[in-house]
Amino acid sequence: MSAGGGTSAGRRAGVRARIESVMTNGYAEPVLHWYAAHARDLPWRHPGASAWSVLVSEIMLQQTPVVRVLPAHAAWLARWPTPPSLAAAAPGDAVRQWGRLGYPRRALRLHATARILTDDHAGQVPASVHALRELPGVGSYTAAAVASFAFGQRHAVLDTNVRRVLARLMRGEELPSRSTSAAEVKLAESLLPAAPGRAARWSVAVMELGALVCTATRPDCDSCPVARQCAWRRAGSPAAMVRPAAQRYLGSDRECRGRLLGILREASGPVPAARLDAAWPDRAQQARALRALVADGLATALEHQMYALPGDPAASPMQPDLPDPTP
Q1: Active site residue 266
Q2: 117, 124 in Cβ contact below 8 A?
Q3: Which domains does the chain have, with CATH numbers?
């Protein structure tokens, strides 16, 4: 009986494995095997990493490479290891801690998220995608990523790397379209292994494959575990019809905003408008960038033409008296 029971259980396991293999078209096993041998040792992937650590990492990784996020993530978690610890700080502290990571509104969104988690979720990151989507700055991708990587759930996680891998592997296209389509989501969902934990590991494995091997400009097809099954490679690796345009940074409003915010971030108190005026040669662009910083909540206009980070000491907000944007 014991042997027979074992054989029956073995048959059931074999059936489940074959079903899962069909579901993933034979891609899951080689990709997961590759990931086990090549995954980077990232702190938010450690077994003991908190959901807060995962959420912070996902917000920081938006449009920012891992190498820049690693020290920022460590410093952030060292200072604010839980949502309530960040919620107790001033918004300006979050902006200052964010430093030169880029797109500093993410710091304000993390601060606002920490307050919501503290007030409405007992200081914990929620596990449901629906609750995560209600947090500031958390879209469909980030919600799916946190639910998958922090809670081991089964969701399609479609970042730029995953979309590129699936475009090449399944559709034979070098690059995906600019925006995620419903067809992409359906395809990604169809490739998820049945078991939630395995599906979460598959999602991060495909993401890692795109980051390390199936890169945007120089894919290392010889190192790819599914190269023989890749539709793009079988088609001769055709170039994309339309390539994404490079965004200009030097001289842009974004650079100007960063210059002004850097002055506010490094100051120990309010900064006079004259000092900000001198930071950028184009006065009209400088005025436009300053107005945008105030409108976005990244800077506060004070009396006597002074400016500060939001919530900084001695910062008593008033109606902004900003310079006229015309020269």
Answers
A1: no
A2: yes
A3: 2-38+156-234 (1.10.1670.10), 43-151 (1.10.340.30), 253-308 (1.10.10)
- Can you give the pLDDT of all 327 residues of the chain as single tens digits? 333 444 666 556 544 544 444 444 589 999 999 999 999 999 999 999 999 999 999 999 999 999 999 999 999 999 999 999 999 999 999 999 999 999 999 999 999 999 999 999 999 999 999 999 999 999 999 999 999 999 999 999 999 999 999 999 999 999 999 889 999 999 999 999 999 999 999 999 999 999 999 999 999 999 999 999 999 999 999 988 766 666 788 889 999 999 999 999 999 889 999 999 999 999 999 999 999 999 999 999 999 999 999 988 655 444 444 444 444
| Catalytic-role residue among 20, 29, 58, 134 | 58
Range 146-185 burial, b when 16+ CB lie within 10 A, else e: bbbbbbebbbbbbbbbbbbbbbbbbebbbbbeeebeeebe
